[in-house]
């Protein structure tokens, strides 16, 4: 099986400061890769660099679309933006960054559909209802503005907005950050269901080991902009080798 | 006393020769700059060309963009018509017409067919325009994406890459809220199959007139410093959905003066009891029909 996304020797510097250094990653279809690390370890820089939000300084990002391997850093901006709104999706930590707050919930979900050329209102409406159902938002809220939604609903709406065009790769930056525990659990439950149901390929960034353990197949542990340990999720978390990973695992609060 | 006399003499002179104003108010270099923008705009239908808009002796929002475009197009042989919401006799139309009478000493008219340049605020004349006529629109906000995407850099990119999905989000919202596309003026159009363009706040009733029009259509936005254009015989289509097609819509009334069933109507409240009547918004069209009768 060919990897759907492969990152090779990726570097991103902010002047003299290291953003992330010498990062490697392979993502296979249907796989979830978790990126963990403390604040400032370069997680967000990494995910922004591979999703087209930031321009990395060097390295390769190979994306496999329709059996054609494209180096994401060498393609034209128009193709890049086309990929970003069709094949890739980005779920922001703060749903307000990923949604248009002055456009109704349905309108938010429909944007990607219309940007790929759907022009039939009836069909678009149907797809919207299907997705509201999938992310467990009541259909009666379809014409309400996102600003009337709770934090958890906003996050679910953002997920629906991103998944509506069936993107191949989904990037998530702390999707449950800033939500209370019970809502977090609900979102995680939903994400796990969608990942299994739709066979999604996901790169998820979190500082929360529980989130990663629940969702991810593979894990990358980052510190000071570098990957200090990689491997299968359960293996790394149950038998951490690097001292930093050991520290990370042992500092999880037990209830 | 001498000074007063001098002033009086000068004033008399201005009527005949341009001693104070250059022809059509703007200086020649400015007109040349605007003409360059106009030519570029005509070459790329619907594309917004930036130009360095000048301060005009009227407030922004009163047609400073249109006036600059008209000024750059005017020659001594031109016959100018100015309309405001279709009417030749409202304040904006009268004062702009007088402005060019004074500064360019050109002939003006109220008859659509006789004019070589027509400056308009928010209407297209009812009578079919001809080749060699120029229609100059006054534009308040040239960017059709402005209300959806406030970042100018981003809208520029969206135009460059034809990322127009968001434009349909606006129409989607309309249908969702009202059951039909509620946008009744400044209805977005696609020009020559490429650029999405704001046709200025003309009623959507006028949108079909832009399509394949033999006249040159120029759009000037003074405050926003943009010029765009539709060359003659260019395809202009109004955006819509397959199951909610574009509908120019027409008030179900007749003009109560000339009886026309085809023209765009103004609604006039006639008394305190809520009685109303409908009359043509294009005064010249209405008057001509009355004369023909």
What can you see in these coordinates?
The complex is a heterodimer of chains A (255) and B (293). Chain A is globular and about 55 Å long. By secondary structure, chain A is of the alpha/beta class. In chain A, helix 7 links the parallel strand 7 and strand 8. Chain A has a 6-stranded mixed β-sheet, with helices on both faces. A 4-stranded antiparallel β-sheet of chain A has the order 2-1-4-5, with helices on one face. The model of chain A has no long low-confidence stretch (mean pLDDT 91). Chain A has 2 domains: 172 residues, 3-Layer(aba) Sandwich (Rossmann fold), CATH 3.40.50; 69 residues, no CATH class. Chain A has 10 helices and 10 strands. With 293 residues, chain B is an alpha/beta fold. Chain B has 2 domains: 199 residues, Bacterial phosphonate metabolism protein PhnH (Rossmann fold, 3-Layer(aba) Sandwich), CATH 3.40.50; 44 residues, no CATH class. Chain B has 8 helices and 12 strands. In chain B, strand 11 and strand 12 form a beta hairpin. In chain B, helix 2 crosses helix 3. The radius of gyration of chain B is 21 Å and the shape is globular. The N terminus of chain B is likely disordered. Classes of the chains: A alpha/beta (255), B alpha/beta (293). Chains A and B meet through helix 2, helix 4 and helix 5 of A and helix 6 of B.
